[in-house]
Amino acid sequence: MNKPFAIAIHGGAGTILRSQMTCDIRREIESALDMAVSQGHELLRQGKSAVDAVVCAVRILEDSPHFNAGKGSVLTDKEMVEMDAAVMSGKQRQAGAVAGIRHIRNPVLLARDVMQKSEHVLLIGEGAEEFASNLGYDYTEQDYFFTDRRYEQLLAMKEQGKVALSESHYPDDHKFGTVGAVALDAEGNLAAATSTGGVTNKHYGRVGDSPIIGAGTYAENHRVAVSATGMGEVFIRCCVASDVAARMRYLQEDIHTACTSVIQGDVKMLGGEGGLIAIDQNGEIHFGINCSGMYRGCIDIHGKKQIKIYADE
């Protein structure tokens, strides 16, 4: 008897305006989501691990300029990219994360190596990049990450003296920029991965929820894997990802009840907008959204694929 496996991904949640969504932009976004979820699922079909699948999916999204992670990352007040990422395996709850990364093309790969090739969980800034150098990672110049779209966004935010998680002239003007994936493999292992470029015009080495285990990323075998996207400070304060697991563990809530309770409960009460994706030990998938949209996709245990953008889809 074949054991179930499934995968879900997201490319950020928030205000996504239909009125500004052109056919070309939608087609490109959906194509990137489709590629990420399909290639991650193919690894699961081949018997690869849930960790392999989520890292593969997130890496593809990092390589797309349409999402705030990797290539599409937003710029800090110093016109630099600073990226964060995390990977967690539900097996023995192993985890690895990096923050403040400036010269690594795919932070999610480095996060996985922190988990698998170091005794640590979270490495930051220059230390994380020194670790990467010791492993033979290529040094990527900031020019690779620079896009006109993100520069225009930074200038607009500097004019207003604000920080933002999105841009000013696009359909996802107020979308929180994060990408992530969760998966269940045929061995029954769960995994989650999350990656982000943070917020536009950020100062002082700000880090959001994405690399914080239990806030933006969490996986626990026989329970659930979660990747979140939203107002990072609120998601940290609410311990969003681990709270979902705790509700399932202690209250015996199913994945849908637990996710809804968290994303529509404390997060919303504290003014936090965003969403999450989750998968449980049976391959049941949940997309939780308390705003107008979230770029997302999945291939469930029956092989059915879905790619969606708006909350009412």
From TrEMBL:
Keywords on record: Autocatalytic cleavage, Hydrolase, Protease
GO molecular function, one term: hydrolase activity, acting on carbon-nitrogen (but not peptide) bonds, in linear amides
Marked site: Cleavage: G177, T178
One of the GO biological process terms: proteolysis
Membrane-spanning ranges: none
Domain of life according to the entry: Bacteria
A Pfam entry, by short name: Asparaginase_2
Binding positions for substrate per the UniProt entry: R206, V207, G208, D209, T229, G230, M231, G232
Coiled coil start-end: none
Entries under CDD domains matching the protein: Asparaginase_2
Residues of the active site: T178
Name of this protein: Isoaspartyl peptidase
Organism the protein comes from: Vibrio mangrovi
